[in-house]
Amino acid sequence: MLTAEQVRLRAPSAEQRELAASAAGMFFRPDRDERVDAGPEGDFDRGRWTELAGTGLLGAAVPEGAGGLGLSVPDLVVLTEQAGRALLPGPVVETSWIAAPALAALGQEWAPALAATLHGDRVAAAVDATLRGPDLDVASYVVVPADGSDLLCAADRLGATLRVSTQDRLERSFRIARGPDGGGSAAQPLPLTDGLRVLDRGRLGAAAYLVGVAGGLLEQSISYARLREQFGRPIGAFQAVRHRLADSYVELEFARSAVWGAACDVAEGDPAAPVAITCASVAARRAFAEADRHCLQTHGGIGFTWEHPLHVWLKRGATFAARYGLRRDLETELGERLLARTGQQPRGRPPRPHI
Amino acid sequence: METVRHREPVVTDHEEFRRQVRAWLAGNVPAGDLPDPDTDDGFGAHRDWERRLYDAGYSGISWPTEYGGRGGDVLHEAIFAEEYELAGAPVRITRPAQRFLGPTLIRYGSAEQRRRWLPGMLRADHIWCQGFSEPDAGSDLAGVRTRARWDGDRFVVDGQKTWTTYGRFGDRMFTLARTGEPGGRHRGLSCLVIDMRGAGVRVRPVRQAHGQTGFAEVFFDSVAVPAGNLVGPRDEGWDVAMTLLSFERGPDAGAPVRTRRRLDALVGDIVEAGGSPGTVRDLGDLYARLSAFQAYTCRRVGARLAGEPVGAESSLVKLFAARLDADIVQLGVELFGDERLAERAPEFLDYWHSRAGSIYGGTAEIQRNVVADRILGLPRC
Ligand SMILES: Cc1cc2nc3c(=O)[nH]c(=O)nc-3n(C[C@H](O)[C@H](O)[C@H](O)COP(=O)(O)OP(=O)(O)OC[C@H]3O[C@@H](n4cnc5c(N)ncnc54)[C@H](O)[C@@H]3O)c2cc1C
Q1: A258-310 confidence digits (pLDDT tens)
Q2: Record: contact B320-A250, CB cut-off 8 A
Q3: Helices (H) and strands (E) in chain B, counts
Q4: Which of A146, A332, B181, B342 is the 20 to 30 Å CA partner of B107?
Q5: Chain segment A105-136, per-residue pLDDT in tens
Q6: Ligand 1 pocket check: which of B127, B139, B140, B245 to mutate, most ligand atoms within 8 Å of Cβ?
Q7: Are A224 and A299 in contact (CB under 8 A)?
Q8: Is B248 annotated in the active site?
Q9: What is the ipTM of this complex?
Q10: Cα–Cα separations (whole angstroms), residue B51 to A2, B54, B92
Q11: Fold that domain A198-344 belongs to in CATH
């Protein structure tokens, strides 16, 4: 139902557009090209992480009183999308969406841990239901989703037992590994944040990041299609190429709206927000799948080389499309919900055509 | 010339407006279906229904009050569209007028033209049609050949339009015709309002794939059109036509409700049939897309409310929604087979109409070209 307040809230404001523009400026560092997957094989880049902490992103959703920026969930979506567009490395989604708000919610006792996390001195991460997460070997705190309440594990000694290997993951510079299951003794139960469980927060954050990746892929492909010439004209003039990119853009814009809408639901305290988040996650995966297919095709042979950054985007997208739920599982969950909901209603009829 | 009293403006408070609309619809929407609008009686019944809507103040909700509208904003219009579809109210035969012909006249018509035409449009005194497509100018609209020759004090029109929705019952046609040199493409086109009941106009109803006569061919043989029926500048009708099309393709808050009803009805059938394990994922995918459609519509209505014009984005919603609707009805056929397509099935017309979504208002291919040209900035083919 469209209400005045909702409709106003949901048209992104001028401030939010500015936020996106300034985030894009902060996240892109020409001297540190995130789009090159030739970085340190295996090592966590502390310097880069401290730099990212300096942008305020990690504590964006933490209250100002606790050292964060105190931004809303929709604002955090705006920032996270730009993070995806810039392919920011490390546990940016895990820290900003999950671990930092969790540390803040735990109160005074955990204030030093929060401060160290927001400064980038310590790393906080999270795993999803598969118990995988980024940079777990260097993490001091790991949030683990669990039955009952989600848990925060102090994980200082994890590094000694965890083997983070490039052989276990898709992309060298995004250091995903399998981590703790929360069964350890140092686990701290977590309250809900904005009424959401850890998996839902991760889902929404990862969907925003994925939309950013898909948007970045599309932007590069558009530029390439304008420049690259064959048969005496830019390939972007060929309808087969134009239509691929147009289709990708359609999915992208609808996914972006879905993610944005779900974030607004969360901000409004809508109890159905987790469903909207699942829908948005599916939409984001659709958008990425479309961009994944069409953008590689648009680049031809050059897109299949290591030197060209395209593969880094494709890999990062594939990594995020598998975080916090696979598309088929999310779709199944939604399908079952739809069947259950409809089962309780009187049988409807399709609408009559207008013409 | 007709005169109308200024109408009472809608209540500013949107939620109060929604309450009023809901209450009115609950008390007034006919219980069963109105008779088939494809018959003379049925069309008459739909005209009467339009008249009731008008009298109750539910026609032209965002149009200026001096032309019979209610002076509301985009959100009033959206709320009404949502509630109307939720209530399962009758098909609106004034839909082309309400959604795009009227708004185009409000933008480009003179004050005199607006006074002359808009109130009759809203009351369904006159049924208005869109006369763009021709046998040799469909996607390539700039190839319009219908000729409007200036004859000193009036235009004389010769040519043919086709696929004219409601042509069989039409009274006025918003026509794109060539006033400049033949073959002049985008230049030398003008928009003229033609009296379809006048001399020299012949209408031949055309049956659609489902057997009903949703549209018609319209022939013009030396039809005299007064100078005062030219809308917008002479020879510059292309811009007017493009504005009209963006209204036609633009966000319609009723559309996601219709899609939801379409999906819910299908899911209801599946539940009744005892479930269908193989389709759970398909349903989840459709549900997610419906949710994105709702979110996008909400965002666009918000942008319009904030004063953003309708532009090329309207092609995005056309592409997304047409595909979603076609996928829903297609799944119905995959699950329930050809019985679904039997003429008596409630899904019959919806199935065919959903499939036309990627053709009318500009085909999907043309929408992709619009997105590529005007949003992505790709080189032209
Ligand atoms: C239910 C319905 C109601 C309608 N109501 C109206 C109405 O009220 N008023 C009105 O004026 N018109 C109406 N139309 C007409 C509609 O706008 C046209 O059918 C449409 O614009 C396509 O034109 P065409 O039928 O001539 O197809 P064509 O233009 O011949 O297209 C045939 C195929 O070729 C493709 N094609 C054409 N050009 C290109 C290109 N440049 N690049 C890629 N592919 C291309 C098309 O996408 C399509 O797939 C209606 C149509 C339908 C189905």
Answers
A1: 999 999 999 999 999 999 999 999 999 999 999 999 999 999 999 999 999 99
A2: yes
A3: 12, 8
A4: B181
A5: 999 999 999 999 999 999 999 999 999 999 99
A6: B139
A7: yes
A8: yes
A9: 0.95
A10: 27, 5, 11
A11: Butyryl-CoA Dehydrogenase, subunit A; domain 3 (1.20.140)
